[in-house]
Amino acid sequence: MIKLLIWGMKYLFLLCFLGFYLTTEAQNKPNTNIDWSKINPGLQVSFASSNIRYAKEAPPEITVQKAWTTKAWKGEKINTQVLLWSGEASKSIKIQVSDLKDAQGNVLKKENISSGFLKYVITDEFKGGCGYRKAKDFDSSYVADIIDTKTAAISLLKNNTQPLWLSIKVPANAKAGSYSGQIKVIGNKEQELQITVQVLDRTLPPTSKWKYDLDLWQHPQAIARVHKVQTWSAEHFALMKEYYQMLANAGQKTITASIVNEPWGHQTFDDYPSLVKWTKKKDGSWKYDYSLFDKYIAFVMECGITDRINCYSMVPWKIAFTYYDENLGQEAVLKDAIGSEAYNRFWKTMLVDFTAHLKQKGWFSKTYIAMDERPMEAMKAVIKLLKETDKDWKIALAGDYHGEIEGDIDNYCIASKWDFPAEVLQKRQQQGKISTWYTCCTEPYPNAFTFSSPAEQVWMGWYSANKTLDGYVRWAYNSWTKNPLVDSRFTAWPAGDTYQIYPGPLSSVRFEKLIEGAQDFEKISLLKAQYAANKNTKQLNALNSALATFDIKLLATTSADEMLKKVKDLLND
Q1: Taking the CA of residue 16 as centre, how many other CA atoms within 13 Å lie in the half-sphere pointing to its CB?
Q2: Exposed (0-12), middle (13-18) or buried (19+): which is 338, by Cβ within 10 Å?
Q3: pTM for this prediction
Q4: Tens digit of pLDDT for each residue in 10-55?
Q5: DSSP character for 252?
């Protein structure tokens, strides 16, 4: 009866979210009934907001802008969109960028400017969020998300719109000043767009020094599959390098490491094999082969992700721990319940050995046994076993807030519906513990589905700052669907839920906006510290007042884009 009541309350809560979500989705859908014959002849070009997705089959409803004027900190990456549209076909459209220069002759070299035509993928809709789904039951559409930096020229079909993503990475050693230049759109004729960037005398630290704790879970097997190479081969590691460097350059701090087979019960399209080989020998003793684990962890660290190793999982979604049994000459499975005598015996032997190995490698202090939300008694049993093995074992948890085990969780990521009690959060900060939040298939907003507003990923950085959390967690970085470059829908969960970047590697609008949100978090942190130190009460109060508007409940009446428009200038005074 209690379970039924809880389910009913959750259902009503979801309906409230869903009602607003569907209303705003209808409001934000482009008008596809516009008569293309009323569009000016020839190729049309304009700058446009990077917080809006533009439909492929409709002309954009915008005021044409031939100039982009913006501000940036040193070390910051800034983005905008350029839209190309036409009522007639255009062939071989190219983009040409140039250096940006200031009045003193200082230069932002064109190598710091990147452009990529946006490619469209199939998406669906929230419509209940979590749960297995069939495509026929959900409204589908095309959405611009892939940033294709590898295609030099495109052809534009008649009555089509083509977005282009433009990014400028301001070097940390750039001189403050106003830099101007052009980009050229070369099609049937050449058109120029003007760029002016005012580089402020403020500097963002390198991503390796960011306070913002971004954790997108990695899936190495998916990279092997889409590139058609043998898992863990030399080719596989060579291909993974660029993916992991891209993630490190976004501020990623944690390595996702599977120490058992299928820690999430094979809910992904690809396998999730263990990095540790478990063998039960003929005499009943155990052997653990860490050679792949060591190679993989060292490799990811070389790519720039060095802070933590999250090991999954002593508490998998399906209790089925596979190992090789020499007496049987085949794989065997342990299915005993968590906390049972057999389970504890199985894991205690491994933990003692794993602890010694990690200490020998110098990795023990940065390694965590990580769990998703599981039944309380199961989580308590795992915590007890870990602390009995070595009191210094660290634990990570992504799930609901539980006061009874909070003190044991060193890296605690709570669902968006929860808040840490103020006194608990303050104590965690004093103890140097990590406190973050996550979204998944549950929340219609804010989120990072392929149909989500790009502004929501920026909004997340401001929300983290408002709640004084350390950062944001999401599953996953690259758990791709069968054909991710074409269709972002999956057999479970809303489209795009399982990945933030594309095979290539190619970035996405969503991923770039997550980075922008992280940059804003860093700016906020630096400005608040400076204002407090200088006793600049007016600006500190203005910034704190702006942050207070970043509450999930307020998204029911104001879009993420509208909120950001009101406050962004505070970071670039």
Answers
A1: 11
A2: buried
A3: 0.93
A4: 333 333 444 444 434 433 444 456 679 888 889 999 999 999 999 9
A5: B
